[in-house]
Amino acid sequence: MRAINPGKGRLILVIAAAVFLLPVLVPAWHLLQKTGGAFSLPRDESFLQLSTAKALAFRHIWGVGLFNFESASPSLLYPLLLAAVFFIFGAHLVIIPILNAVIGIILLSAIQKWLSKRGTRPVNQLFVLLAVIVLTPLPLMVISGMESPLLLLFAFLFVSRLSDEWTMPAFSRRTLIYGALLVASRYDGALLVAGASLLLIFRRKWLEAFELVLWSLLPILAFGIVSVFKGSYFLPNPFMVGPAGSMLSYDWLLGCGLAVALPLLSRWHIKRLDRKTTWVAGLTALCFSLLIMTRNLYAFRETSRSSVRIYRQEYPAGQFVRRYYYHQSIVSDDMSVLSYLAEGQYVDLSGLASVKVARSKVHHFFSPRLVHQLSDEQNTQVAIITDRYDHGLPERWVRTASWEIPAYDQSGKKTFNFYGMDSGVAITLKRNLENYAPYLSRDITVQYYYFPPR
Fold it and tell me: Do 292 and 143 belong together in one domain?
């Protein structure tokens, strides 16, 4: 293998990093222009991760509330990493894209070093890095505020290390640790480990497959035991109450596989294939790449719109709770942004952040009576329910007011309904809503339903 000039390697990495960061800065600038300088994220799930990280950093509790253990994150490692950063710098949304961008640059550096050790030409190295950026797509992962860059980093480290040691009699300790970190980054990584283990079993390497599975699943097993001991499920709540397959996404794996594998076809491999097979494989790869790129461009545009939508539709209720009910108990079916902007004890009617609600939905005994019982247990005074909630509410609750927030782009309008647990709470709630009304955007329609007697 020819040695690659380190100076050229650094230049390639600088070019790739610039191409990677530019698509991150453009949507961020567009978002700040639309929101008056306020930063937001495009996905509701990311705010639950941030709430978990805040609780872990400042209250040493795994959950989104003040006291209870609630597993609302599909990742174990990402909230821990965020908690460490929040503890040092404070909980600020702008930290999320900065942290994900740093992880993305570390990923590009790891791929470049791996290619350089194999004598890949600098031009091909740059092509691979650009393909990884475009096909995964890495900038979209940074903006999403999720754990995808961390997952992709450990997926590459695990697979690359595994390929280097595939013919050895045993795997090194580093490979097994990478497998554990991959699964800890997100539970979906267990399927990648399962695929590698099946290949080992096919080659009759039973002991190596068992060791790989045991080490990789160790984070899930340890956290699952603690979670069950705390009264929760073995798996996080999103995997229990969410629709089947809604938490699983493997576009990043397909994109990274195409980006890394195809450009590495050496002349020796091509010579062993006839010309017809080479053309068919090349055209198939090109079609897949174009399809993924088209889908990613559409997702990139939708991500920017989703960030603005969440700021316009979700932030008003969260900021209201932050001002008047910061450390109090709240019932809601839309807890993501609310739990991040405020700090309190929550009854999440979706079940993502409340294990008792999740258990009632899994075993089909969720009812208005149970909602009233849970709210009484936590001494809840106020409920904020959206118009998309399709279950009944306790009859004793007093509907006080509603905010109708207009549609943004193609999202449709959204209405928040505010309830007091009794008439006394409703009086205070209405007064707070009236005091906060001047801070609302002019396009939000406010309507009051409770008028206490003089």
Answer: yes
